Amino acid sequence: MIKDTFTFHNGVTIPAIGFGTWQIPNEEAYDSTMMALKNGYTHIDTALAYRNEENVGKAVKDFDLPREEIFITSKLPAQIKGYQESLDAFNETITNLGVDYLDLYLIHAPWPWDKKGEDHTEGNIQSWKAMEKLYNDGKIRTIGVSNFEISDIQALLDNCDIVPMANQIPFYVGRDQEDLLAFCKEHNILVEAYSPLATGQLLDNEDIKAMADKYDVTPAQLLIRYCLERGTLPLPKSTHEERIIQNSQVDFSISEEDMATLNSFDDVRG
Ligand code: A2P
Q1: Confidence category of residue 135, pLDDT binned at 50, 70, 90
Q2: Distance between CA atoms of 51 and 49, rounded to whole angstroms?
Q3: Does residue 268 lie within any of the structural domains?
Q4: Alpha carbon separation from 66 to 36, 37, 222 (Å, rounded)
Q5: Cβ pair 243, 220 in contact under 8 A
Q6: Is CB count within 10 Å lower at the N or C end of the chain?
Q7: Residue 248: CB within 6 Å of ligand 1?
């Protein structure tokens, strides 16, 4: 599974499961990333806002694989909107990581986190133009967005040249964002699922446990497989090696009937 790939609309491929590093502090990021790389992950997801790019980058550098065999995603901080500001933030990210190009760069959110829901369309357009320049200059192989709703993406489609290649959103059993998923599919935008385990909140659910037992897998493996069955790219996060390994071993199929059950789950957030 870990060697499978998705293909973006520009032809670039991305490993089908990524190692998420949200909430991994910089001190732990080196060991966790190294564990992921040692266990076959070649796709690492970070962000300037996670404050762990430096140690993620060190692990990538120390690991014995050529740079081009590792797929690195990072993100433009949500509060940075504007052309030059975005170019500057990108430079900070590649300096932190110690790389000279990124595989995927995302606008982290359509609004600053403390101004959720506010309209920042003009700022997003300017940031997107900066990302298009970096893409055209060969500094980034693919560009996309994160936490964008349909209207946020539509604004870029209406005002910019390049259709985003990815939208990274919270996606898990009970939060399947059907309309957004369909919109992204229609525009050939790959949906990446962050928090595929609902940040851990679904792992003790009795129905999930019972279904996982049926397939002889763990709840985490069932939840990760669910994302893949829905055509999304899961980004599970863990700092424990046995879990990091487990989260990449999801080579089984969920029956149509069980998918229907999972699709009808209520959101764990209530
Ligand atoms: P830890 O990092 O201590 O292993 P998400 O990917 O949805 O954000 O969920 C991450 C949470 O799920 C973290 O608390 C992580 O804990 C936990 N987790 C990740 N993988 C597993 C697993 N295979 N089994 C149990 N818990 C897991």
Answers
A1: very high
A2: 5
A3: no
A4: 16, 12, 32
A5: yes
A6: C
A7: no
Q: How far apart are CA 226 and CA 205, in angstroms?
A: 15
Per the structure, how many domains does the chain have?
1
Question: Does some domain include residue 14?
Answer: yes
Give the model confidence (pLDDT) of 1-20 as tens digits.
Answer: 678 999 999 999 999 999 99
One-character DSSP codes across 98-113: T-S-EEEEEE--SS-G
Domain CATH for 50: 3.20.20.100
Q: Which two tokens stand for residue 22?
A: 């949200």
**Domain enclosing residue 186, as ranges:** 5-263
Any bridge partners for residue 74, and if so which? 105
Q: Would you say residue 23 lies in a domain?
A: yes
Residue 269 within a domain: no
Atom of ligand 1 minimally distant from the CA of 196:
7
Rounded distance between C-alpha atoms, residue 128 and residue 14, angstroms: 21
CA distance linking residue 73 with residue 220, whole number of Å: 23
pTM for the full model?
A: 0.97
pLDDT value of residue 90:
98
Q: Whose CA is nearest to atom 26 of ligand 1?
A: 200
